[in-house]
Amino acid sequence: MQTSPFVGELIGTMVLLLLGNGVVANVVLKQTKGNSSGWIVITTGWAFAVTMGVFIAKSFGSVDAHLNPAVTVAFAVATNDYSNLVPYITAQMIGGFLGATLVWILYRPHWAATPDPFDKLACFATGPAIRSKGDNFVSEMMATLMLILGLAGISSKHLGELAIGVGPYLVGILIWSIGLSLGGTTGYAMSPARDFSPRLAHALLPIPGKGSSDWNYSWVPVAGPIVGAIVGGLLIRWFAL
Fold first, then answer.
1. pLDDT band with cut points at 50, 70 and 90 for residue 163
2. Which pick of 36, 66, 83, 160 has the fewest CB atoms within 10 Å?
3. Which helix (H) or strand (E) holds 54?
4. What one-character DSSP code corresponds to residue 217?
5. Which domain holds residue 114?
6. Alpha-carbon distance 174 to 138, whole Å?
7. How many domains does the chain have?
């Protein structure tokens, strides 16, 4: 099989979810080595997950390495080129599901050892600290807007060329910063491939005592990021970032 943008987005997103949801599972599931190690571990793990996901996506053929439908939407709006929407988002959603499934396999003995259904769902999808859907929507929108503006800043033509290989590390720092500063309200999904696909995996996989997949909330980490992405894309276009 040859490398391609589709394969790169799929494999990169799969790795992103394996490492990202993997660190959540390590922290919240019972009898793991990292149980109860806290938010700093989760945000750091997610930052590293994104960094590795970007490197791997590029190596498998995706020069863009979006790994996130919201990022794909944002740069489609910014460039007025929508040709990548369907292939990229399809690959990302499949990759998100596969990555979440790999987390289920890796932590298989720990699902039965964890009594709280909410903790099990947290290893797949996000949830609000305080359930207020309007406020939660705004949180996801603002976090995603910060993501898009941060990515635009990292790649801005006004800053000159980056040294080869530096970009993914800067993206990781951006994700780390967003998680630490803005992630405490909703868990900073910022991506349907990070939330909807793993939530679907949670619904379908035979996880003992898993409880509800909370579909009533599921629109928030999809709609919020997409709106934030559209706003970010328009800002990039208007200001020629």
1. confident
2. 160
3. helix 39-59
4. T
5. 5-239
6. 19
7. 1
Query: What is the model's pLDDT at position 241?
Result: 82
Query: pLDDT (tens digit, 9 = 90+) per residue, 21-54?
Result: 999 999 999 999 999 999 999 999 999 999 999 9
Token pair recorded at residue 118:
């909410």
Cα 158 from chain centroid (whole Å): 27
How far apart, in whole angstroms, are the C-alpha atoms of residue 196 and residue 72? 16
Tokens of 237: 């276009």
Domain CATH number, residue 26: 1.20.1080.10
Contacts of 226 (CB under 8 A, 6+ apart): 69, 70, 73, 192
Name the 3-class secondary structure at 1: coil
Residue for token pair 């996130």? 68
Amino acid at 44: T
Amino acid symbol at 145: L
**pLDDT at residue 226, as a whole number:** 98
Pair of tokens at residue 5: 């943008």
User: Distance (Å, rounded) from C-alpha 168 to C-alpha 58?
Assistant: 10
Helix (H) or strand (E) holding 182: helix 167-182
Give me the mean pLDDT over the 143-153 stretch. 98
- Regarding pTM above 0.90, the answer is yes
